[in-house]
Structure formats: structure tokens, C-alpha cells
Write a structure and sequence with these properties.
With 173 residues, this protein is mostly helical. It has two domains: 1-80, Serine Threonine Protein Phosphatase 5, Tetratricopeptide repeat (Alpha Horseshoe); 94-173, Ankyrin repeat-containing domain (Serine Threonine Protein Phosphatase 5, Tetratricopeptide repeat), CATH 1.25.40. It is 46% helix and 0% strand. The protein is elongated. It holds the Pfam family Ank. InterPro entries: Ankyrin_rpt (IPR002110), Ankyrin_rpt-contain_sf (IPR036770). ANK repeats lie at residues 1-33, 34-66, 67-99, 100-132, 134-166.
């Protein structure tokens, strides 16, 4: 697999060397063959300080990898709430969807991340967007996964109860 020096340094765990390469002018937005940016690599490896450095250095927050995943989605998947919050407040695209249609709101609703759901609802995120795979809305996912507080919040913010999922089911509220 072809990797560039910054990617290789991060992948091998040399976060200080990776930061030095970036400080010396390495392209902070250069993607590898799987279209992952150094920011996504840093998050995937759990290198919070390096990820914060890249965010503060104005790395592109919305580079999508081959699966359509962005840095925001990577931070959510790695359960990094501080980075998730920082990415949203730094202007990460909260409507960006993975290839199968999952948005950050879908993921937060599914995993029960109330704080992120609340923060995302302060942006212009679509409450009723459906995924491509099973046509689920964030409300469907919150209810299916047993997160009544999130379901209530979504309903209070205007989530529609009449959207059918792939099985032609309404959210079981």
C-alpha cells in the first residue's frame, strides 16, 4: 500500500515526527490511496494532540475517504467527544454522508451520544434524512437502539414520525 511520509509516520505511531513533518511544510491534506487524510489517520490512531494540531492548522475537515468517512465521523467512531465537539465547532460539514448515507446525526443517534446529537441539532442538520442501506432516519435508529432521550429530543426538534424505513416500518414510538 502506497503511503506518504506523514501517513507512514502516523501509521507507525511516530506522532511527534509526523507533527514535525507537518510543521516543516508537509501537505496536511494529502490523501493516501484509500483517500484518508493525515487528520483521519491521527484520529484513527487515537492521537488526539496531533488531531488538534491539524484542526488548528486548518487542515481540511471534510476530506472523505473511500467509504465517504470524514474526520468528524472518525472521531465519533473512536469515541472522542472532545474532538467531535471541536470538529463541529470548527465548521466540519455535519451533513456529509458516508457512501451508504449515514450522517454524523445518524451515528450519534444510533450510539446514544446525546451531547453530540444536541450539538448537531444546533447546526442546520437534516433530522429526517434517510440512509441508503435501510432507509432509516436518526429517529428510527435512536428508537431501535433504545435511546428514548435522543428520540424525544429529535421529536421536539421536528423529526417526522411518518417516514418509512426499508422494512416499510414507522418509528415505533
Amino acid at each position: 500500500m502506497k503511503r506518504h511520509s506523514v501517513h507512514m509516520a502516523i501509521w507507525k505511531g511516530h506522532k511527534d515526527f509526523a507533527q514535525k513533518l507537518l510543521e516543516d511544510g508537509a501537505d496536511k491534506d494529502l490523501v493516501d490511496q484509500e483517500k484518508r487524510s493525515p487528520l483521519v489517520h491521527a484520529i484513527d490512531m487515537g492521537f488526539k494532540k496531533l488531531a488538534i494540531y491539524l484542526i488548528e492548522a486548518e487542515a481540511d475537515l471534510d476530506v472523505k475517504d473511500k467509504d465517504g468517512r470524514t474526520a468528524l465521523m472518525a472521531a465519533q467512531r473512536k469515541n472522542m467527544p472532545q474532538l467531535t465537539k471541536m470538529l463541529i465547532s470548527s465548521g466540519a460539514d455535519t451533513e456529509s454522508a458516508m457512501n451508504q448515507g449515514t450522517t454524523p446525526l445518524h451515528y450519534a443517534a444510533k450510539t446514544g451520544d446525546y451531547g453530540t446529537v444536541k450539538q448537531l441539532l444546533e447546526t442546520e442538520t437534516d433530522l429526517n434524512r434517510v440512509t441508503k442501506v435501510n432507509c432509516s432516519t436518526p429517529l428510527h435508529l435512536a428508537i431501535r437502539r433504545g435511546h428514548p432521550g435522543i428520540a424525544k429530543l429529535l421529536l421536539e426538534k421536528g423529526a417526522q414520525m411518518d417516514v418509512l424505513d426499508k422494512a416499510r416500518c414507522l418509528p415505533p414510538v
